[in-house]
Amino acid sequence: MSETEPAIRIESLCKTYAAKGVEPKRALDDVSFDVPRGQIFGLLGPNGAGKSTLINILAGLVVKTSGKAAIWGFDIDQHPRNAKLSIGIVPQEILFDPFFTPREALEIQAGLYGVPKDKRISDELLAAMHLTDKAHAYSRTLSGGMKRRLLVAKAMVHSPPILVLDEPTAGVDIELRQQLWAYVRGLNQQGVTVVLTTHYLEEAEELCDRIAIINHGKLIANEPTRQLVARAQDKAVVVTVDRDLTQAPANACFDRIEVKGERVLEIGYRKDKVNAGEVLDALQKEGFGIVDVSTRDPDLEDVFLSLTRENA
Ligand SMILES: Nc1ncnc2c1ncn2[C@@H]1O[C@H](COP(=O)(O)OP(=O)(O)OP(=O)(O)O)[C@@H](O)[C@H]1O
């Protein structure tokens, strides 16, 4: 493939789940986007948005209804084997044969991918996932966090250029989350393209170069993270005033106002309409002296809410 070709290309992808006696469910509706090579790409969306469906189509576990997908330049219909070899997928559900040890599980997985014995990296993967001392324990004796790390190791046995993590931190404690992200960042620095799906906007904001958002099966955003965050227009100032508040003052330039404490107000405003200075002036005109001010920048949560609201 050429240097400029994306790691993943999705074109007009549709999926309708149909079963006898139940209403057909359109899980993906004409979704198109590219995952550029070398990036950490976030796929965001609320529960049931269609993220797992998309990942499972790439994994060859769900058959698409129409549209195209190519992984590392390999069309999933025309070159399914090469497409599969180019991607490692960490599934959302933890599924293992409980009787294999982590090391055996990795060796079996490598065998399935046709990795020759002298090219296997089971021990490196166990070390990277802090599982060396569990290499020979039964999988069923591992903690939830250890199982999740083993799943990441399993996805990497064939050293794919793309790693996909489907909700990798659901139910994972903070320490493991940090470890997982350190590993993912490390892989990315070595050139691995990473795609992760998440509900956690903060996580996506912190990690991802680019973010796509799906809602009800439709792509509603696909932009560099910084650009996406900059689109949020809702800002807020938290103001401490010089006297006790009996009720929140009203003014046309406040989008919303909330009494947060005896003398503390949070005022929401739209940065495309007014600036913080005008909001504070308005407050002073209402007769308040200002003792202290802090502003809250919009984050992805705000973007997400406004985009999903617009598309509702
Ligand atoms: N096998 C199936 N049969 C019928 N409907 C399904 C099937 N799998 C998923 N769906 C439906 O398709 C829609 C998209 O589901 P999907 O699991 O892709 O969403 P998601 O974004 O991954 O959500 P979550 O974050 O909860 O996993 C949902 O409405 C879901 O109920």
From TrEMBL:
<comment type="similarity">
    <text>Belongs to the ABC transporter superfamily.</text>
</comment>
<keyword id="KW-0547">Nucleotide-binding</keyword>
<dbReference type="InterPro" id="IPR003439">
    <property type="entry name" value="ABC_transporter-like_ATP-bd"/>
</dbReference>
<keyword id="KW-0067">ATP-binding</keyword>
<dbReference type="InterPro" id="IPR017871">
    <property type="entry name" value="ABC_transporter-like_CS"/>
</dbReference>
<dbReference type="Pfam" id="PF00005">
    <property type="entry name" value="ABC_tran"/>
</dbReference>
<dbReference type="InterPro" id="IPR003593">
    <property type="entry name" value="AAA+_ATPase"/>
</dbReference>
<dbReference type="InterPro" id="IPR027417">
    <property type="entry name" value="P-loop_NTPase"/>
</dbReference>
<dbReference type="GO" id="GO:0005524">
    <property type="term" value="F:ATP binding"/>
</dbReference>
<protein>
    <submittedName>
        <fullName>ABC transporter ATP-binding protein</fullName>
    </submittedName>
</protein>
<keyword id="KW-0813">Transport</keyword>
<dbReference type="InterPro" id="IPR050763">
    <property type="entry name" value="ABC_transporter_ATP-binding"/>
</dbReference>
<keyword id="KW-0536">Nodulation</keyword>
<feature type="domain" description="ABC transporter">
    <location>
        <begin position="8"/>
        <end position="241"/>
    </location>
</feature>
